[in-house]
């Protein structure tokens, strides 16, 4: 009986790794303005969007279904442009005991950048499917965010 799993995807982005990471690290409340699949997010507990003690409530669309969950930051590694979130409550608890979302943004030697998303999960029972829909969701959100961040960089007058 296999209940634990890990899904990983790495996607090339046009913006820099630092700029993509910064959106999640210090401007998380803006993510919903960059991605149409995120309908709403709000602070549930706490006052600082980026504090590890803060809990956020998310409403988002995977496939054709609206979902909700809560999220808290588990770890931030600024040197590696890495953030680990714990997702729980709402629709997550219906299927998973543990659900972690990991973002790592990196610049490549060839001058490009990439975002690596990892989902680590533990299913509540073996009949639950892996969260494959999340990988498609993360891919679409990454593309939306990258386009918006790239447009902002292109229109900025430095």
From TrEMBL:
Q: Which Pfam families match?
A: Bet_v_1
- List GO BP terms, alphabetically: defense response
The record's InterPro entries line, in alphabetical order, gives: Bet_v_I/MLP, MLP-like, START-like_dom_sf
Instruction: Give all residue intervals belonging to the Bet v I/Major latex protein domain.
Output: 2-152
For this chain, the family text in UniProt reads: Belongs to the MLP family.
Its name, as the record gives it, is Bet v I/Major latex protein domain-containing protein
Give the organism's phylogenetic lineage.
Eukaryota, Viridiplantae, Streptophyta, Embryophyta, Tracheophyta
